[in-house]
Amino acid sequence: MITFAVYLLAMVSVGVLVYQETRTYHDFALGGRRLRAPVAALSAQASDMSGWLMLGLPGAVYAAGVGATWIAVGLAAGTYLNWRFVAPRLRTYTERAGDAVTLSAYLEERFEDRTRLIRIVSAAVIVVFFTLYVAGGLVAGGLLFDEIFEVGYEFALTVAAVVIVVYTLLGGFLAVSVTDAVQGTMMFLALLVLPVLGIGALGGFGALGDDLAGKSPELLDMGAQASFADGRWTDGGSLGLIAVISLLAWGLGYFGQPHVLARFMAIRSAEDIPLARRIGVGWVVVTLTGASLVGLLGIALLDEPLANPETVFIGLSVDLLNPWVASLLLAAVLAAIKSTADSQLLVSSTALTEDFYRAFLNRSASDTVLLLVGRITVVTVAVVAYGIALDGGAVLDIVAYAWAGFGAAFGPVIVLSLYWPRMSAAGAMAGMVAGALTVVLWEDIDPLLGPFESGIYEMVPGVIAATLAALVFGRFVGRPPLRTWSGPGGDRMRRGRGALHA
């Protein structure tokens, strides 16, 4: 309790300190575009992974074995591709698109949409899916506090929500980014230390493999999955191609995550991106490996099977370590939860403030008014997410749904906006709507396919539908933008043939 109290006070203190540096709405929304490479990288990846990294992924591996790690493979690949191909151009183009501080504002300017429909639809998608995403983070926070301190889920949920709101409210983007960088470091160390200690306690990787094989051979098979029920692991059957594709498809979501893309927009310069990419990708590979090992080590080391697999990191920390050290590692779980929820709160607040209030209600609003509205909307989104979180739910399920929503709605449109000069406003609109609706309706659509019902993760059909819609409408409906866009390194994206010129 002492460790958690000190940690929570430290995060709130960051918000108080950065409050003095948050003088304008641009500071509040995007930190004045002055993030250095290490802060941008660590805060991007920490906000990306959320409590899912410390609870959901270890829990999935604990229940199903190494077959669940296909998710990690997809995420590592998606992280690299996002930093390599999206980050440099997005940093440059958003600044030249009227110094846009939101994806909605960038897309409106990029496609010269004077109807403002792109801004309305994209901002609405952000607010809806992020409210669900924040709720998932609050559920994870409530689960953590209740599991450790046994204070009751509702009280635990309230504490987690209040702390996140306070420092986001005070410091805005800069406070969120700095705290996320600190929290990203904590997550990295926790997922490095706990697996090392666990392997040492067990006697090496050979002993781990023997123990897992003894419980169920499927636990060690990338092409199969175990079934966990009533405290036992049994053969869950082959994963199959569809299941593997669904797990790998998590990597597709990166191209459309507003809270990750915001770090690309806020980094000091496109020249800082190669260093940030190396830091970010390295962080992801180490933490995903560590989280997967925690799930496997929980099977081998915990005396009693867990009622809730998503508590395996907590159980292993408490079993292996003394309370002081364990509390430091468990604080990293809270760091993982808060580092995502705060970013999502801020992006939702910015969308409501910039893309609704400023764009349609008060175009001449002063910085003072925008800051006030931004802070009010932080509280509003948090209250709605808190209400949703009271019903509970599995962290992985909530995150998977919101992740798919953003990946399908924005991923194809963002990539095409950066690389296809003939893309029109109609294509952008069609892509966003098709992607979002497919994700929302896929659970009802898939059973209607009868013998062709796939059970595939909704990200896959969502991305396919969005890409096809964007390509078809972008090519045949509406005109391409007239403006020439200059990208990193002096290349220019022009309308018509010869898309990219050095």
Number of DSSP E strands: 5
Strand content: under 5%
Helix-strand topology string: HHHHHHHHEEHHHHHHHHHEEE
CATH class: Mainly Alpha
The stretches of 5 or more residues where confidence is low (pLDDT under 50) are 493-502
Q: In percent, how helical is the residue content?
A: over 70%
CATH superfamily, by name, is Sodium/glucose cotransporter
The side-by-side strand order for the widest beta sheet comes to: 3-4-5
Largest sheet: 3 strands, antiparallel
Overall SS class: mainly alpha
Question: Gyration radius, to the nearest Å?
Answer: 22 Å
CATH topology-level name: Sodium/glucose cotransporter
- Spatial gap, N to C terminus: 58 Å
Number of domains: 1
CATH architecture: Up-down Bundle
Q: Label the overall shape.
A: globular
Counted by DSSP, the helix tally is 17
Question: Topology, please?
Answer:
Elements: H1 2-19, H2 25-30, H3 37-64, H4 70-96, H5 103-110, H6 117-149, H7 153-202, H8 205-215, E1 224-229, E2 232-238, H9 240-248, H10 258-266, H11 273-301, H12 312-320, H13 323-361, H14 367-389, H15 395-419, H16 425-448, H17 459-476, E3 485-486, E4 492-493, E5 500-501
Antiparallel strand pairs: 1-2, 3-4, 4-5
Helix pairs in contact: 1-7, 3-7, 3-10, 3-11, 3-13, 4-9, 4-10, 4-11, 5-6, 6-7, 6-13, 6-14, 6-15, 6-16, 7-11, 7-13, 7-14, 11-12, 12-13, 13-14, 15-16, 15-17, 16-17
Tell me what you see in this structure.
By secondary structure, the chain is mainly alpha-helical. The chain has one domain: Sodium/glucose cotransporter (Up-down Bundle). It has 17 helices and five strands. It has helices at 2-19, 25-30, 37-64, 70-96, 103-110, 117-149, 153-202, 205-215, 240-248, 258-266, 273-301, 312-320, 323-361, 367-389, 395-419, 425-448, 459-476, and strands spanning 224-229, 232-238, 485-486, 492-493, 500-501. A three-stranded antiparallel β-sheet has the order 3-4-5. It has a two-stranded antiparallel sheet with strand order 1-2. A hairpin with a 2-residue loop joins strand 1 (224-229) and strand 2. It starts with a helix and ends with a strand.
